[in-house]
Design goal:
The chain is mainly α. 62% of the residues lie in helices and 5% in strands.
């Protein structure tokens, strides 16, 4: 794995730990720019901020889409 991929995955993991969940189904709220800014205020990154944000948001979109698909499945018996 490249250092860039490793940095992004680690950042997503840390940022996601601050995620809020809402509603009766405890749906995950999207990661915000503020959450990313808070992370970057403590952790240095050599990745361009626009690219960093874009990748974190793309990973989060995939996570939330997969979560929604799983939440719509009927419970296993």
């Amino acid at each position: 794995m490249s250092w860039v991929a490793s940095e992004i995955i680690e950042a997503y993991y840390v940022i996601g730990r601050g995620r809020q969940f809402v509603g009766a189904s405890c749906s995950p709220m999207p990661i915000s720019v503020g959450m990313i800014s808070e992370y970057l205020s403590v952790h240095q990154s050599s990745i361009d901020r626009r690219e960093f944000d874009a990748v974190i948001f793309a990973i989060d979109d995939e996570f939330r889409a997969k979560w929604a698909l799983e939440a719509d499945k009927p419970p296993k018996k």
